[in-house]
Protein backbone atom coordinates (compact mmCIF):
# COMPACT_ATOMS: atom_id res chain seq x y z
CA UNK A 1 0.00 0.00 0.00
CA UNK A 2 1.50 3.40 -0.93
CA UNK A 3 1.96 6.17 1.58
CA UNK A 4 -0.84 8.71 2.03
CA UNK A 5 0.05 12.09 0.57
CA UNK A 6 -0.82 15.20 2.51
CA UNK A 7 -2.93 17.82 0.73
CA UNK A 8 -0.31 20.38 -0.34
CA UNK A 9 -2.86 23.19 -0.80
CA UNK A 10 -4.12 22.79 2.76
CA UNK A 11 -0.56 22.62 4.04
CA UNK A 12 0.09 26.08 2.59
CA UNK A 13 -3.03 27.56 4.17
CA UNK A 14 -2.92 26.27 7.74
CA UNK A 15 -0.34 25.57 10.42
CA UNK A 16 -0.51 23.15 13.34
CA UNK A 17 0.87 24.49 16.62
CA UNK A 18 2.92 22.49 19.08
CA UNK A 19 -0.17 21.70 21.16
CA UNK A 20 -2.07 20.54 18.07
CA UNK A 21 -4.25 23.60 17.45
CA UNK A 22 -4.90 24.48 13.80
CA UNK A 23 -4.35 28.16 12.98
CA UNK A 24 -5.02 29.98 9.71
CA UNK A 25 -5.15 33.47 8.25
CA UNK A 26 -8.30 35.43 9.08
CA UNK A 27 -10.76 35.60 6.19
CA UNK A 28 -11.69 38.83 4.41
CA UNK A 29 -8.30 40.36 3.58
CA UNK A 30 -8.03 39.48 -0.13
CA UNK A 31 -9.87 42.23 -1.99
CA UNK A 32 -12.14 45.32 -1.66
CA UNK A 33 -9.89 46.67 1.09
CA UNK A 34 -10.60 50.30 0.16
CA UNK A 35 -14.25 49.85 1.11
CA UNK A 36 -13.46 48.35 4.51
CA UNK A 37 -12.73 50.56 7.48
CA UNK A 38 -9.12 50.73 8.66
CA UNK A 39 -10.14 49.42 12.07
CA UNK A 40 -11.72 46.39 10.39
CA UNK A 41 -8.67 45.61 8.24
CA UNK A 42 -6.37 45.90 11.28
CA UNK A 43 -8.62 43.52 13.22
CA UNK A 44 -8.49 41.00 10.35
CA UNK A 45 -4.67 40.80 10.27
CA UNK A 46 -2.87 37.89 11.89
CA UNK A 47 -3.82 34.27 12.44
CA UNK A 48 -6.75 32.77 14.32
CA UNK A 49 -7.64 29.30 15.52
CA UNK A 50 -9.74 27.36 12.99
CA UNK A 51 -13.36 26.55 13.89
CA UNK A 52 -13.78 23.31 15.82
CA UNK A 53 -16.14 21.91 13.14
CA UNK A 54 -13.38 22.11 10.49
CA UNK A 55 -10.43 20.78 12.52
CA UNK A 56 -11.14 17.07 11.93
CA UNK A 57 -11.38 17.54 8.14
CA UNK A 58 -8.24 19.70 7.98
CA UNK A 59 -6.16 17.29 10.04
CA UNK A 60 -7.25 14.43 7.77
CA UNK A 61 -6.10 16.41 4.71
CA UNK A 62 -2.77 17.08 6.41
CA UNK A 63 -2.29 13.40 7.16
CA UNK A 64 -2.40 13.74 10.94
UniProtKB/TrEMBL annotation:
Region (Disordered): 1-41
GO biological process: translation
GO cellular component, one term: cytosolic large ribosomal subunit
The keyword tRNA-binding appears for this protein: no
Annotated Basic residues bias: 1-18
NCBIfam families recorded: rpmI_bact
Protein name stated in the entry: Large ribosomal subunit protein bL35
Source organism per UniProt: Micromonospora rosaria
Gene: rpmI
